[in-house]
Amino acid sequence: MNRNTGLVLAGMLVFAACSDNNTTAPVVVPQPTAVVTATGNIQAKVDEFRTSLGAANGGTAGEQATGRREINWDGAGANPFNNKNDFPADFFNTNVKSGAIFTTAGTGFRNDSTLFAEINPAYAAQFNFFSATKIFSPIGSNLLDQLFQVAGQPTPAVVRGFGIVFTDVDVADQTRIELFAVDGTSLGTYSSPVRSDAGGLTFVGVTFADPIIARVRIKLGTGALGAGVNDISAGGTVDLVVLDNLIYGEPHKAF
Ligand SMILES: [Ca+2]
Ligand SMILES: [Ca+2]
Questions:
Q1: In whole angstroms, what is the distance from residue 95 CA to residue 255 CA?
Q2: Which of 51, 74, 179, 193 could be cross-linked to 187 through a Cys-Cys bond (beta carbons 3.0 to 4.6 Å apart)?
Q3: Among residues 208, 220, 116, 125, which one has the least CA distance to residue 164?
Q4: How many angstroms separate the CA atoms of 196 and 113, rounded?
Q5: Residue 243 alpha carbon to ligand 1 centre in Å
Q6: Which residues have C-beta within 8 Å of that of residue 129, sequence separation ≥ 6?
């Protein structure tokens, strides 16, 4: 008996045991079909992840049969809101219909064209962009959630894959994403690699066979941006991390 056969049989035995006494059925958490990570020159892996989700649907309103959406923060439509601490949480499903809504326990969001140098001049030497030139962060927190809606509609949705580009991950296993199903079940936590070069970009992307991701909790390092807060690589005590591109499967109406 090979190892895989043994695992399948073990699973069947667990299921049979639970069925016999008519108790709660075993909870089977779906496993990803792929987990893609990259550090340093991340371009090829990001492209691989994009391709795995299908063609780009841009800001096309309405649920598309297949494909992916992507937020790069760089479009001119966001310019009136940039470099301020109140970037609209629903911008990417109202102004631009990409099916994304953000929440944070902090005080707001900031889409920034200066590598956040207007918050703290030292940040220009810390952060980098993947897609030129804007990057994104919550304000007052290092946690944010992304939820999904049918593009252009306030209808809860699910996606089958989610990937994210980070800049300046210095500490292992502190920058990560946790994916959740509609019922709140965790679909797992996936860490970004640590930066491996001066560019400082990293990527993690997770794909499932079916659209089951309703929410993504994004954790950026170990602290929030601030005028007096320096990165651990620049004499500070916290690992500051911000994000660039978000790449996710087409949002399908959740049932
Ligand atoms: Ca960008
Ligand atoms: Ca850092």
A1: 26
A2: 179
A3: 220
A4: 24
A5: 8
A6: 115, 135, 167, 244
Mean local confidence (pLDDT), 224-249 = 98
Give residue-wise pLDDT tens across range 134-161: 999 999 999 999 999 999 999 999 999 9
Q: How far is the CA of 73 from the centre of ligand 1 (A)?
A: 5
Ligand nearest to the CA of 247: 1
- What letter would DSSP give residue 28? -
DSSP per position, 29-97: PPPPSEEEEEESS-HHHHHHHHHHH-SB-TT--S--SS-EEEE-S--GGGGGGTTSS---TTGGGTTS-
Backbone angles phi, psi at 208, to 5 degrees: -115, 165
Spatial distance between the Cα atoms of 31 and 207, rounded to a whole number of angstroms: 9
Closest Cα partner for 175 from 200, 202, 146, 135? 202
Exposure string over 19-57, b if 16+ CB within 10 A, otherwise e: eeeeeeeeeeeeebeeebbbbeebeebbeebbebbbeeb
Ligand 1 centroid to 31 CA: how many Å? 30
Q: Coil, strand or helix: which one is 187? A: strand
